[in-house]
Write a structure and sequence with these properties.
heterodimer; A: mainly alpha; two-stranded antiparallel sheet; 43% helix; elongated; B: mainly alpha; 14 helices; 2 strands
């Protein structure tokens, strides 16, 4: 091999860069499966005790941001305060009063996945960060 | 073009069929791991193979005056004669694609009634190549959020800047639009110019189609047919720690994307995409232009058998003297005596 004094460091840099996730993960604390805290008690909406989320759980896990942005636009820009879910149930279009009524703990619910996946939504630029006591009032 | 398109479509369908037939583990875990190994080992193999080729002569392509006499101004960067200058040229080549910047286009035009060939600077290829490569870089850096836990702050900064306009949720990334735009240009450039179409091979189109399909499926997964990102993260962390996690249950678009990326990784070391490593290996870029200062001798030339003039004269001295040809060394006078 010619020019080994340039080629070999080059190969090492290449291999190091492209296997970086392996090394960094070996050196950092063991990855633990991210599990969010789901609400334990049913909450009353429109005089009815509900224990299911607005849409099916799997759909919410992947698409909640879509629903939230849709709610923001309909509540703030179109002043529509009632949302009809796929199953026909009615919900108040409100992050604080609807979503956070059940998912009251931001640290154990929102932040778990968002931190793990480096997602930084700007919900809290406007909304007050809940302190985990929404069920109490 | 049709072959390349069909091949890309086939890979896409294989990925989709794999998830539909319940082969999630094969397409979500085994294939990407194998592809990663092929990519890294293949890349190193290719570089070593290239490094084994001897390049005995200085063959840099220069675009400036070589250093010679004191009163002729040399061009340090365009015709480097020291190692740091070569490194400087290489860095600028790798980061700003200077050789594409010099791209010119020749066209037959008519000036004052007579046909003429005119050459003019053509920067479009440079602009879109730059746009594509930097978008690709940002996208790869962004993907580190799936492979690292905790995610380093610098990656969050890249994500923030990429989605700084805060359009929609999930936030729209600029590079997603840039990469598709740049790839579309690079494709249309080949497809619409008959001269380029003539010299384009299936491999040229295949790389473009594959990248378009990868970017397209990724964009689709982020904005249209969403998957549970948290589950994806578990699977990819499983890959990055070599402790595989069963990917069953993730939407099929994920498997399409992963299969396409795996195809790219496997294809990479054996294709024109190796210019990623090749740019550093190209003798026309990485050699000093010192052909006036140093004599470059081909090391495997057969040994030369010289017959010097002195030896020649020794052979023929007597005949030369007889013919009246002047000689350096006079013949010994024993013959006269």
């Amino acid at each position: 091999m010619f020019n080994a004094k340039y080629v070999i460091p080059g190969i090492i840099v290449f291999a190091g860069l492209f296997t970086a996730p392996f090394w960094i993960n070996m050196l950092s604390p063991k990855h633990e499966k991210v599990v969010v805290e789901l609400p334990a008690h049913p909450v009353t909406f429109f005089g009815e005790e509900r224990s299911q989320c607005i849409e099916p759980r799997e759909w919410m896990a992947a698409n909640h941001m879509e629903l939230l942005i849709e709610w923001r636009d309909s509540a703030l820009r179109e002043n529509k305060r009632i949302y009809t879910a796929t199953d026909g149930k009615k919900w108040e279009t409100s992050l604080q009063n609807t979503c956070m009524a059940c998912h009251s703990n931001k640290t154990e619910f929102c932040d778990k996945c968002h931190d793990a996946n480096s997602v930084n939504p700007y919900c809290w630029d406007c909304h007050v960060i809940p302190q985990g006591n929404n069920n109490e009032f | 073009m049709t072959i390349a398109f069909a091949a890309t479509l086939l890979i896409l369908c294989v990925g989709w069929a794999g998830s539909a037939l319940g082969l999630q583990y094969l397409f979500g875990v085994i294939l990407p791991l194998v592809a990663g190994a092929v990519f890294i080992i293949g890349f190193i193999w290719k570089i070593v193979r290239w490094a084994k080729s001897p390049v005995p002569f200085a063959i840099p392509t220069v675009a400036g005056q070589q250093r010679s006499l004191d009163w002729i101004k040399p061009s340090r960067l365009e015709c480097p004669w020291t190692t740091p200058a070569v490194a400087g040229r290489m860095v600028l080549e790798a980061f700003t694609f200077r050789s594409l910047f010099r791209n010119t286009r020749a066209e037959r035009t008519t000036i004052g009634g007579t046909p003429r060939v005119t050459y003019f600077s053509n920067k479009w290829l440079w602009v879109f190549a730059l746009l594509f490569h930097y978008s690709m870089l940002v996208i790869i850096i962004r993907h580190a959020r799936f492979f690292l836990d905790p995610v380093p702050a610098c990656i969050a900064v890249v994500e923030f800047l990429d989605g700084v306009f805060q359009v929609g949720a999930p936030r729209f990334y600029m590079t997603d639009a840039f990469i598709l735009g740049a790839l579309a240009f690079l494709f249309l450039r080949r497809a619409l110019s008959e001269r380029l179409r003539y010299i384009s091979l299936p491999a040229d189109y295949f790389a473009l189609f594959l990248l378009i399909a990868i970017a397209g499926s990724g964009i689709c997964m982020r904005y249209i047919s969403k998957v549970d990102v948290n589950q994806v993260k578990e699977v990819l962390m499983g890959l990055a720690t070599l402790q595989p996690v069963d990917p069953t249950g993730i939407g099929s678009i994920f498997f399409v994307h992963v299969t396409l990326v795996s195809a790219l990784l496997i294809y990479f070391p054996f294709s024109k995409l190796m210019h990623m490593g090749g740019v550093f290996m190209s003798p026309t870029r990485n050699m000093k232009c010192n052909t006036r200062e140093e004599r470059h001798v081909n090391p495997w030339n057969p040994p030369k058998h010289y017959h010097t003039y002195a030896e020649y004269e020794d052979d023929f001295r007597d005949a030369m003297v007889e013919a009246g040809i002047p000689v350096d060394k006079q013949p010994e006078t024993t013959a006269e005596a």
